[in-house]
Amino acid sequence: MQDDKNLSEIQIEDQQIIDNKELNLLESLIPVVILMCLLAYNIFFVEGQEWFGAYTNQYILIMGGFVAAVVGFFNKVSFATMVAEVWENWKSVFVPIMILFLVGALAGTWLVSGIIPAMVYYGLQVLSPEIFLPASVVIAAIISIATGSSWTTSATVGIALVGIGSALGIPTGMIAGAVISGAYFGDKMSPLSDTTNLAPAMAGTDLFTHIKYMSFTTVPTILVTLVVFAILSGTIDTSGSADISNLLASIDNTFHISLWLFLVPGIVIAMILMKTKPLIALGTGVVLAAVFAFIFQSDVLISLSDSKFEAIINSVLIDTNIETDNDKLSELFSSGGMNGMIWTILLITCAMVFGGVMDAIGALAKITKSLLSVATSVFGLFASTVVSCLGLNAIASDQYLALVIPGKMFKKAYEDKGLAPENLSRTLEDSGTVTSVLIPWNTCGAYQSSVLGVDVTDYFVYAIFNYLSPFTTLLFAALNIKIRQLIKK
Length: 489
Prior knowledge:
The protein has helices spanning 7-10, 25-45, 56-74, 79-92, 94-112, 115-126, 132-147, 150-167, 172-189, 194-203, 207-235, 240-254, 263-273, 278-296, 298-304, 308-317, 327-332, 342-360, 363-373, 378-395, 399-416, 421-433, 443-452, 456-459, 464-478, and strands at 320-321, 334-335. The protein is an all-alpha fold. The protein has two domains: 22-93 and 342-478, no CATH class; 95-341, no CATH class.
């Protein structure tokens, strides 16, 4: 979950869902179909994303927004209305974009200061290939519960776990899938998480009733996830165990490794636990890492530039590559700094254009209402909610909209069926929060992919918890398990 907004910033009560009675369902779906066709063509038929260069997905999202605008013009939606809605979307992602820049700076400074190499160094000695994947799920879950943020978890222990697992020879897609599975489980179960507060607020229940009721589907799903990763750990062929001594020697020869380096991530996590603003916490991590680089890694800084100060500035802003006597580690010890986040930031910006225009023309409301109209049974209501959340994650490219819009649209329908509001809040989380990371152009998918350095297509199949959660909630609905009825007073 994005840890950039609190509930007051999301402005739940003021969230506008634009309805356009002149727009029909077919017209609403035209931009979606064209967008999906273009994205599918790019993925399956264009090698290396050379259709429009490196920014193909961004261009496609802009084209989808243009098609949606044309549909809007034909249905008497003014250009000013569309621009206003896009502007609102851009304002909503300003803080996430700042966080992305800081995460890029954090990755660079934590590299040159020796923090990430130290995490890899000690992690290699503790985490063996046989237990690495399930252990990664558990570690990410604990940190995410404590911080209430899957984003923070990925930016701290997630980066370290990918580094350690890569050194052990474990495929990065598997590692990222394990980290994301654990991080989103913890995010859902943490009372500190903004989405965990948002879902019950939209459905009309209280926070702890929501968490308790959500555990009925979430706990079995994470247990299945752990079993799958335990089986995967026993089947993957890793070469890292035999090379650990050489890897440790290479790290030791390149960096000054000390337990004092863990003071920086410790301070950052402590600040987040004390509910410090993420921008301040991450910014502090960057500054402290720069100071520690001067103290501990003088030789590394000199090897990167004639000026130590310039080496630090470069690690914040641009690519940094630290050479070791091991090719695997040299590839691992590289960072793009803030510059490495530009692609992701442009993707998010373009996604907000498409989502904003779709909302402005009333297409999002029309699609959701159409799903609601076919929900004649209890299971149909749950299924419509799931489909609505999944669709909005793909169309609006933002997990908050995937919670807010279905939450407002379906609340009365659950009441009419005699269902307690925690049924809706649980379904919103099981299908809205966790699946956002599976969409490459969603803010969450773009963030996790950039931070962990692993393509969404590479970790998708291994983000087991995330894609099993919607199936679990539908299974419970189909079998009428833990479907709470409204208590009549």
